[in-house]
Each structure stands twice: as structure tokens, then as C-alpha cells.
Design goal:
10 helices
């Protein structure tokens, strides 16, 4: 962890320094400066949320693998290689969300900035390489930029570039998994917090989980709000090709979860034993990604094992697709009352602004 700043929880116990950051405590952490080391004005500050013990990660993954229909949370895609693979996915011709959302921002960023107002702390959830937020800086003119991501090493690298390009901007990184609890330090919420959640990552949550996340953001966005990208329902062939590209990059991204788990909890997955599967469930309005066993096999990890039949699957990701009306209803359910949205001409994607 960067010695310029440390993150402590409310009990005063220093945080860990591992290179990934699973779910944070529901307690609100506070920032504590380390003595004798004033923060350099042109360096990005970096914090890391308190980490659960490795036993908690082992228990979480074990519970998923032992379910009747095995599953692993999509956060385990994002080791350093997984983060780079996802960046490659966004460049694929089949993967329409990134370029469609970018076109909406290009066309309507001025209107969004007018709706949001000036003088904000822009809080980038799942920031990745930070490019989407940085692209909006000229119109939004944030007074502070806070980037949050589970892939800590990847985020550090990205923030160094952001600070070099914007040396006068207050830049802060927070290594954090907010899937279970989005609770930020009070120090990051002092000046009109505007949560920025592009890319339709909200679709990785069930509607119930998404409502809880949105409600938590609303409670912390007093005077600000949330700007969020949402993938809309469209023909099945377009959806499935976006998650199963011809080049096989999405397949590599999905399968990379297996060696990540091998390192994290000691499983003995073998890549040749598993293939990528993506399908759209029209009833639940979601894309599902799975890893499918190509033969009967046993997977072992500390204290446990499981036999998989040939063709049996591990569910690794869901991506829910909304209509404009259904997402507006979700925002209202989460406590937002004033909202507006922008879409592309084809109606494939929408960006919503919801006042806190």
C-alpha cells in the first residue's frame, strides 16, 4: 500500500496490503495520514479497504462450488490479467456496449454536465483503466476524482497516468470490492459526490442486489447523484455474440478465472478441461456466462472436492438487460426521485442521471 495514506477501519486496525480486495466491511472506514510523510501534491493518493481473512474468501468460493448448480462470483475475473483481457474485450467489433455508450457521452456530455452541475467529487465505480471518466473531465470539470476498483495493481497503474495528464487534480484510488457493501470514507464524500458507474456493470447484480447498491449510493450522494450506464434489451443474436466473440477473447477472460482461483484458494482446475459458454435467458432478461466441463473430472481444494460430469457447468456471470421503463422503476425503488436519460439512435444503450 502507498505509504502516503493508510486506510483504517473504525476499530483502528490497519488494513491489509494484498493485491486484490474482496468485500469490505459495512463499517464506514476513515482515512489516517501516516506521520512524517506529507502527501506529494502531484501524486495520486491510494487507499485499500480492510480485507477479510483468506478463510472468508475460501468459504465464499467453496459455498459457490458446492451448490447444486455451481457458481463463482464474477469479481474473481479480475486479477491483473483479467483486467487487461476485459480492456481487450471492449475493443472487439461484437462488443457494442463500450462504443455505443461512448457515442452517447460524446453527443450528450454537455447536457449531462449541465444537469449535474459544477464542483463535484466524481466517484468512478469499477474504474478499470479510468478512460471513461477521464474522457468526461473537460465537460464535467471535477474538483476531485476518486477511482474504485477491485484490481488494485491495475488501478495503481491507471491512476499514475491520470495524475500525469491532470497534475492539478486531486486524484484518489480506493482498492475495494463494493459488491456486498458500498460504504465509503466520509472524507471522500464532502464535496457533492457524483457516483459514476458506466459500462452496464449494474447488470452483473440481480435486480434485488442492484436496488441495494443503488440505494447505498443514493444515501451517500447527498447534493450529488449517480450517472450510470445501462444495457438495454435487444435481439438475442446481438447479445450472445457480444459475450462469445469470434476471436475468443471473452472465452479467455472467462477461463482465466480458473488459474486465478488456483492461486487464491488452491483449487486444481486445468484449463483444457473447461470451455466457455454464453447464452441469453429471455425469461430472466439476462446473459449468462458459464464454464462447462468437457469431460467427467474431479476438482480439489483445501478441505473439499467436487466431481463434475461432462457437460456440467459453473455459472460465472449474469448480465441483466433492462428497458428504459424497468430501470427507471429500479431507480425509484432505490429512492431516487428525479432522473433523466439519454440513448443512442438504435435504443441499444442508455445513460441515466439520477439526483441524490
Amino acid at each position: 500500500m502507498d505509504p502516503l495514506l493508510a486506510l483504517r477501519n473504525t476499530t483502528g486496525i490497519p488494513t491489509g496490503t494484498r493485491d486484490t480486495s474482496p468485500a469490505g466491511s459495512s463499517r464506514r472506514p476513515t482515512l489516517v495520514g501516516l506521520p512524517g510523510r506529507p502527501a506529494a501534491p502531484l501524486q495520486p493518493q491510494f487507499m485499500q479497504n480492510k480485507l477479510p481473512p483468506e478463510t472468508a474468501t475460501l468459504a465464499e468460493v467453496t459455498a459457490g462450488l458446492l451448490k447444486a448448480r455451481a457458481e463463482v462470483a464474477p469479481k474473481y475475473f479480475y486479477d491483473s490479467l483479467g483486467s487487461h483481457l476485459f480492456e481487450a474485450i471492449t475493443e472487439l467489433p461484437e462488443y457494442y456496449p463500450t462504443r455505443t455508450e461512448a457515442a452517447i457521452f460524446d453527443l450528450h456530455a454537455g447536457e449531462m454536465a449541465e444537469a449535474i452541475g459544477c464542483g463535484m467529487t466524481l466517484i468512478d465505480l469499477g474504474a478499470g483503466n479510468c478512460a471513461k471518466a477521464v474522457r468526461l473531465f473537460p465537460e464535467f470539470r471535477p474538483s476531485r476524482y476518486v477511482a474504485i476498483d477491485i484490481s488494485v495493481d491495475f488501478l495503481r497503474e491507471a491512476l499514475a497516468g491520470v495524475q500525469r495528464a491532470h497534475p492539478a487534480l486531486n486524484v484518489t484510488g480506493l482498492g475495494m470490492d463494493f459488491a456486498n457493501a458500498l460504504v465509503l470514507p466520509n472524507e471522500l464524500l464532502r464535496e457533492r459526490p457524483v457516483f459514476f458507474y458506466p459500462g452496464s456493470s449494474i447488470g452483473n447484480f440481480t435486480p434485488e442486489q442492484a436496488s441495494r447498491l443503488l440505494a447505498s449510493a443514493r444515501e451517500q450522494a447527498r447534493g450529488g447523484g449517480m450517472l450510470i450506464g445501462v444495457d438495454l434489451v435487444k435481439p438475442t443474436h446481438l447479445l450472445e455474440s457480444a459475450y462469445d466473440d469470434a476471436l475468443g477473447v471473452t472465452a479467455a477472460f472467462n477461463r482465466n478465472l480458473l488459474p486465478h482461483l488456483n492461486r487464491r484458494i488452491g483449487t486444481d482446475f486445468r484449463l483444457p478441461d473447461w470451455q466457455h459458454v454464453a447464452r441469453f435467458d429471455t425469461e430472466q432478461s439476462r446473459i449468462e456466462m458459464h464454464l462447462q466441463a468437457v469431460r467427467e473430472l474431479d476438482v480439489r481444494w483445501p478441505g473439499h472436492s467436487r466431481r463434475f460430469a461432462a457437460g456440467e457447468r459453473i455459472h460465472t456471470e449474469s448480465s441483466y438487460k433492462y428497458t428504459v421503463a424497468s430501470f427507471e422503476a429500479l431507480l425509484r425503488e432505490s429512492g431516487f426521485r428525479q432522473m433523466q436519460h439519454w440513448t443512442d439512435p438504435q435504443g441499444w444503450f442508455a445513460v441515466f442521471w439520477a439526483h441524490g
